[in-house]
Amino acid sequence: MGVFKDVFNDLFRARSCYKCAKEKRNCGFPLLINEIIQKAREGTDQTGTRRHSFYRPYFTVWMMIVNTAVLIVSVSIYNFAPVGTTYKPIVKSLVRHNLMYEFVTYMQQENFWLGPDYEDLIHFGAKYAPCMRHDKQIEDAIEKDIEIEAGSGCCVRNDLNVCWQSQMANCTSAFATFHNNTVCGIGKEFCAAGTVNESLWNGPITDWPNCPVVNRTSISRTTAPTKACEVTAKPCCIGLQGQCAIISEEECGIRNGYFHSDKSLCSQVDCIHSVCGIDVTGCVQFYRFLLPTFIHCGVVHVVLSLLFLWFITRPLEESIGWWRCGIVYLASGCGGTLLSAFLTPYQPEVGASGSLFGIIGCHIARDIINIEEWRNNWRKVWENHPTKKLLVWLVLCLLLLVPGLLPWIDNWGHVGGLIFGFLTGFIVLPSPVKRCSGDYMMRIIIRVFVGCIDVLVVIILVYLFYLKQDLVIHAGFLNCIPFTKDFCADSCMELRTRINLWFVVGLREGVSDRVRGINLWFVVGLREGGFRQGQRD
After folding, report:
1. How far is CA 431 from the centre of its chain?
2. In 3D, which of 19, 141, 8, 70 has the Cα closest to residue 352?
3. Segments of the chain with pLDDT less than 70
């Protein structure tokens, strides 16, 4: 118990010493005290020996303000998601694009941190690999969807002047006519002269230019039914992995999707752009390596980060200075995000946990540096009290990794932050030995060596993340332990199995488990009469 007590005493000793120095400065001897403080900030005394310095916690307070402000902004924009750990079914009735009355169920994801859902957090700037690189697996899946869409056509209802893009199997011949190799509501004659290559119209419909009908009332329904009809369905981006469906605007809103009223086919829209917020075909969002450090899942999440900042980060900053603490904090956040993006690319991640674990890593590095037996007699290392405190930090790290075994908490970000915080700490921490001594020169050599290791690790991870996307590592075992059958089913750690969205999957109460392993980021429909799969329109 004495070791634990000393660890926590060290955390508060810097603050108490700083208050003491401040009181003395206000009580007499201003010139003498200012000189002492200046020497302390320089980090050496007259003999050149490193001293303990005490600084105001500017960086810690600034991070607390920024984290709180970012959470307020995110909640103001996206509101709160339902509280829980799975999905909340939202059932609404509507008239679908085929003018049939149905009940549609949207499975809204819950958030037990009291904040926005994860789709909104990704749009806000969370770590998500498809937004940070040209993701080969998702691009291949989208290409397969485009190949399926190339075989679609326009389904025109016979009794009403409405139409929608559909597969032949979904266009019921009893009340609709299927027009193969056509697109509802567009035509070559409506393109501006000289703006479109004529040869494109001879290829598959997914290559056709988007030239919508200007005035359909002037077109004969008999001679050109696919151009005279009212198009009731447009592309809607649903989910996080580029899924798209041709549905009505009302249904797209119920399913929390992004509706594209100015497009006719899914091949004409970029659904990854809808999720990420910018055009990722032109550039990738490199800032997502750092931005998630300032975003939190909710109120509970940010409160835990603020407590950690105040009780763990603040004492470190008051002893090593704001710029050293800031370098460790930011480098750990970027490093943790980089490792997490490589190992679990499809799991959204936000929060300062990687940076906070990096602060613990810096504490560990400082304790190692301060163990003089490393330089004198390594056999007496265990007899030194800082060694026992070092073990306490390691035990604390193991305890803090336990919550990461629950869904939606990223342990790889913790591990990456701890590693980079430890390495960065060796580089930026002040040396406890005299200048111009042999030990001091050895300290410089160690800094250069550790810095090379740090840079090498970053280069390897960046290379693997961007250029070795085919390298599949099943790293979910450290992020979520499946205590029950479906305990980790909603963690979104792997690329989900895609299904053909031309076939709307229907559910009734009691059969939702049949499709839980397929994809519930987009949704399902309910219709009176029971379960149907591949139901014809």
Report:
1. 37
2. 70
3. 1-53, 194-196, 278-283, 371-387, 406-408, 432-438, 482-537
119 close to 258: Cβ distance less than 8 angstroms: no
pLDDT of 221: 85
3-state SS assignment for residue 332: helix
Strands (E), 96-143: 101-109
| C-alpha torsion 187→189→191→193, nearest 10 | 160
Residue 218: partners with Cβ closer than 8 Å, 6 or more residues away? none
- Residue 1: CB atoms within 10 Å: 5
Q: CA nearest 118: which of 89, 84, 81, 90?
A: 81
- 373 Cβ neighbours under 8 A, 6+ residues apart: 380, 381, 383, 384, 387
The two tokens of residue 86 are: 């799975």
Residue type, 390: L
The torsion angles phi and psi of 186, rounded to 5 degrees, stand at -130, 155
pTM for the full predicted model = 0.80
- Please provide the DSSP assignment of 490-518 as one string: TS--SPPPP--TTSPBB--TT-GGGSTTT
Pairing of strands 234-238, 101-109: unpaired
End-to-end CA, the chain: 70
